[in-house]
Write a structure and sequence with these properties.
By secondary structure, this protein is α+β, with helices and mostly antiparallel strands. The chain has 2 domains: 80 residues, hypothetical protein PF0899 fold; 52 residues, no CATH class. Helix content is 31%, strand content 28%. The chain has 4 helices and 6 strands, in the order H-E-H-E-E-E-H-H-E-E. Strand 1, helix 2 and strand 2 form a beta-alpha-beta unit. The structure holds zinc ion. Zinc ion binds next to loops.
């Protein structure tokens, strides 16, 4: 259900941008997904496709792409930043747990520099529309009628 609500938000955003920039056809939508975001990418993609199917010509040629944003953590004590790759001792089960419930990161991880468990997740939790590419409405569009 979460994915469907997001899909609708993505389509609405694309429509809004198209209107603001005078785009007649959207060619590509790039969506950024945080590493810690609990989203089924395939469901989200399916939902977007289902929604735009019923839209006018605006989305006819639209390609949907996803980009991943890696999670980044920052220590509140010493300011050190790190990600999963240099978190070190995490085993598979632990990183899975963090993936599904980001809050438990504090149970499994601590700052690699000062060992403080007081850190924040500064990247990897969001989902947003990164870019929308489209064609401008041509001079032969319906608004420029010849006499
Ligand atoms: Zn630290």
């Amino acid at each position: 259900m979460h994915e469907w609500a997001l899909a609708e938000a993505v389509v609405l955003t694309a429509e809004k941008v198209a209107k603001e920039q005078g785009l007649g056809a959207i060619q590509g939508i790039t969506i950024k997904l945080g590493q810690l975001q609990q989203i089924e990418k395939n469901i989200l993609k399916f939902a977007i496709r289902e929604i735009i199917q019923h839209q006018r010509s605006l989305f006819k040629k639209a390609k949907i792409r996803f980009q991943n944003e890696k999670a980044v953590f920052k220590c509140r004590n010493c300011g050190r930043k790190w990600n999963f790759a240099n978190a070190g001792k995490l085993n598979f089960k632990e990183s899975e747990a963090i993936h599904f419930v980001p809050e438990v990161a504090h149970v499994f991880m601590s700052c690699p520099q000062c060992k403080s468990p007081d850190f924040e997740i500064i990247k990897g939790r969001g989902i947003w529309v990164d870019s929308i590419v489209g064609e401008k409405e041509g001079p032969d569009g319906s608004e420029n009628k010849c006499h």
